[in-house]
Design brief:
The structure is a single chain. By secondary structure, the protein is α+β, with helices and mostly antiparallel strands. It has one domain (about 5-145): Gcn5-related N-acetyltransferase (GNAT) (Aminopeptidase). It contains 4 helices and 7 strands; from the N terminus they run βααβββαβαββ. It has helices at about 15-20, 30-40, 85-95, 110-120, and strands at about 5-10, 45-50, 55-65, 65-75, 100-105, 120-125, 135-140. The protein has a 7-stranded mixed beta sheet with strand order 1-2-3-4-5-7-6, sandwiched between helices. A hairpin with an 8-residue loop joins strand 6 (about 120-125) and strand 7. The longest helix has 12 residues, at about 85-95.
Length: about 150
C-alpha cells in the first residue's frame, strides 16, 4: 500500500471551510470560528494535507506574551496517530523566528501532553482558572539550532 506524502501549507481562504468542518469546537466555543477566520486571513494557520484533503491544522502566532506560540493544533479524529500533529509541529519549528517555541494544553488532554513531551517540549508552568477544574499546562521547546548556551 502506498501512502501519500503529507504536505504542510499556509491555509488559504479556500481551505477555511474544511478547517472549520474538522474542528468540532467551532460549534460550542464562542469566538472560535472568528479566531480561525482571522488566523487564516493573517497567514497564521498551517494545514496538513495528504492528497485527500486537509487532515489537520495548527495556528501559530505570537499571542502568548509576544512569544512564538502554537495556539491551536487539531487533527481530524479519523486521521490521528499517523504523524500529522508531529509534522505540523516540526514545520512550525522550522519557520519559528527565535530560540524557543511555546504551546499549551489542558491537564485533561493527556494525548497532547504526551505529544509535547515526545517532541522535546518541557513543562514551563500552569495557568489556573481558564477552564474550571482543568488547568492549562504551558510547554516550551528550546529550538536546537538556536538553543540557549
Amino acid at each position: 500500500m502506498q501512502t501519500a506524502t503529507l504536505i504542510i501549507d499556509v491555509a488559504t481562504d479556500a481551505d477555511l471551510p474544511r478547517v472549520l468542518a474538522i474542528d468540532p469546537r467551532v460549534h460550542d466555543t464562542p469566538g472560535r470560528r472568528e479566531f480561525l477566520k482571522r488566523a487564516v486571513g493573517a497567514g497564521e494557520c498551517f494545514v496538513a494535507r495528504d492528497g485527500r484533503g486537509i487532515d489537520g491544522f495548527a495556528v501559530f502566532d505570537r499571542s502568548f506574551f509576544d512569544q512564538p506560540f502554537i495556539a491551536l493544533l487539531y487533527v481530524d479524529p479519523s486521521r490521528r496517530r499517523r504523524g500529522i500533529a508531529t509534522a505540523l509541529i516540526r514545520h512550525i519549528e522550522s519557520v519559528c523566528p527565535g530560540d524557543r517555541l511555546f504551546t499549551s494544553t489542558n491537564a485533561s488532554n493527556v494525548a497532547m501532553q504526551r505529544a509535547c513531551e515526545a517532541l522535546g517540549f518541557v513543562r514551563s508552568g500552569y495557568i489556573e482558572n481558564l477552564d474550571e477544574g482543568d488547568p492549562e499546562i504551558v510547554y516550551v521547546r528550546w529550538l536546537p539550532t538556536r538553543s540557549k548556551s
